[in-house]
Design goal:
- Two copies of one chain form a homodimer.
- By secondary structure, chain A is mostly helical.
- Chain A has ten helices and no strands.
- At the A-B interface, helix 6, helix 7, helix 9 and helix 10 of A face helix 6, helix 7, helix 9 and helix 10 of B.
Amino acid sequence: MDAREAVVAATQEELIENGYDGLSVERVAQRAGISVATVRDAWGDADALVDLLFDEFGEHELVLMNTGSVDTDLRALAAGIAAFYGVPRLRATFRALVYSADRSRGAAESLRRFWTQRLARAAEPVRRAIAAGDLPAGTDPIEVIRMLGAPFYYRMFITLEPLDDALAERAAAAALAAARAGVLTRQAS
Amino acid sequence: MDAREAVVAATQEELIENGYDGLSVERVAQRAGISVATVRDAWGDADALVDLLFDEFGEHELVLMNTGSVDTDLRALAAGIAAFYGVPRLRATFRALVYSADRSRGAAESLRRFWTQRLARAAEPVRRAIAAGDLPAGTDPIEVIRMLGAPFYYRMFITLEPLDDALAERAAAAALAAARAGVLTRQAS
């Protein structure tokens, strides 16, 4: 395990246990078994550690398929989201990251940037389907992905309901139905 | 202004300014100009104050119409949500309440209860439309309302994007399109 990996793992543990308020370069360095100076040189403060974790999450298993069927591709994407949040450690880390946005402007900025990049990448199968004429011209690919993802986060952070087994299937099907109805078109405004 | 109103207003200000961690019976009493003993008798601790605020929000302008058209009813409901979060003070309070769920198990319980009641009430126009045969039999009314609301909260708390002007219209239309496609049916599980 190199220094970066050790710092990622330690940041994750610290965030899960103590939240953003408990996150510090000193504690992460101690947990990672690395000198404070080394950690501080590469990641200067708590916000830099949060940003590092978002980078790491950005690499995570976004299920992007190209089966020729946008329905299959989006079902796989939604199933991937469900599988991700089915892992308690990943779910706990992401929860702590989202709540960090309330504690720090820097963390909020990292969260925003994370989603801008993530949504753009996840929209690839939708872009292909529009180009192929499988979804209405003028459909906003990012909006389709927002619609697919929103139900997961709504339950996790707003209504605090469990993610039931059928959610992935339903979220993908609902986003596709809305797109096919021509509802998810680009905004004039 | 009676004591309850004064305490509601003071709790709201305290939460907006200092978040859940800064919320205390003492500070709220001082702000409301009421004795600590009086506040404590009625609302014993910070969680009781949070719960009071959820009660108050539960009374807030849920736009429930009965026009005979579920499309019109749900567009009005979504426009009502947009209008609500367009008021900076209400939005700031609700943000603080949602983030409170990360700081306290009691606040999380209040948030969960708030949504259980709110979703059940908001689903009334959908129930009527199903009974009238305007939406497919087997449609889950609560799930239609979740689908309509999720995009607002996804932007406010997850992607940290603005609520654009067309969002209400789009959210209502998307939920209806998904319901009409038969995607939002009751779970067997």
